[in-house]
Amino acid sequence: MATDALGGELRYETGAALTVDEVNAAYAWAEWPQREAWRIEAASARSTWITARSADGRLVGFVRLLDDGGLYASIWDLLVHPAWRRRGIGRHLMELSLAATADRRLVALVSTPMARSLYASLGFVDESHGHAGMYLRPAQPERPAEGWEDGQRVP
User: What is the pTM of this model?
Assistant: First the structure.
């Protein structure tokens, strides 16, 4: 157990398992769109969730780490429940992510405007060695990615 900035007890877990409902509920905290179950399950199978839970087991925050194990990692979906914000939870989740990726050559993330100052305080910059992030949002397929059908992994 750890204690947040206001004295609440929290349990942090790296490699946590989250349900689709928990992830979508957290996306609602940020007013992000709900994701299909198969997408969350596919992302979970390839990522590491780091969670913060209250003493009674309630999910109060998480971050998702996508890591190739050697060169590069990216951090996604840092979310903290609105009632638990400004207690250092997001910073601690980020610190756990950065500790897990300390020997990578590059750790990248995409920031919302609200989180930009947090990431900058942890050393993230808009550009590095003349390189800047670029984005592409492909058209969304009408069916699940290969290996998934109706939200279920196909062996």
Answer: 0.85
